[in-house]
Amino acid sequence: MAEQREFSRDVQPRDFGALLDDVFRLYRSHFRFWFIASAAVLIPFMVLKSIFSVHATKNVQQLLHTIMTNTAHTQSALQTFNQAQQQLGLSTMVMVLLFLEVLVVNPLLYGTLLHFVTELRLFNHEANVDESFSRSARRLFAVILTQLLIFVLYVAAVVIIGLVSVLLFVAARAVHVSWVAGILIGLIIVALIVGAIWIRIRLVFTTSAVIEDGHAGWSALVRSWQLTKGNFWRSLGFLFVVGLIVDVLQGAIGLVIQGLIPGAVLDLILTSLVTLFALPFSFLAQATLYIDLRVRTDAPDLQSWLHSSDNLDSKE
To answer: What's the average model confidence in pLDDT over 89-97?
Structure first.
């Protein structure tokens, strides 16, 4: 028989300022947890990524130098071709690393931090790193499949909109009013950008739904849609402010690093370290917002919800 869990008495919807305050408090008070989790997940990937980034940069420089100075000779042309092949191989590896980051590394770290925040906020239980990481890892395959589904849906939408735009342009050219097609395509592009932002926010908690709610695939998309229903502007504003804070801090630190420390390799290492401290803040903020929306969605009558928990305590 499943154990009945008691909700924390601190569970309640938060306003915008309180949410931000929660994020800063989590970041400061639980430094050890998120740093260990981030280091364990990010550092091996950062080392691998840095190695290929350095090699790719050197190959590009060598390729450009060869093209600009030796293209008149057959031997140098062959050298250029060989370097181009090497660069293509490295570019492919960079793409593989990008997919690895998006589908594995980031979801694994986010899931670890999300479980910790969920247990702390909803049940006043401080989960350890092993417990949180294990839960995230167990749901990782479902996360990957769900993210691939989102990617396929995005590609399908872009293809359909692209075809519609081409047909509109061809039809307008056929009746000699191409300027109308230009306006329509411009409006479609604007609508596409706005729609992409809207859908991105509505689906931002898909990974959260997979890891903490146990959904997968289309069900996870629906769950995220439900959580953000009526909370679009709240979610957009909060995530925008958090992103702005992180970008400003990263940009300022990056300028200091570039000004004080010469060398591409060292700059890359230090930039990775900045990410090691900045990314957890973003993930803690997203997890905090998820908990707030979960409380608002799953417990619209919060007093009744907590009262039922009190009744359960008295029965036991």
So the answer is: 67
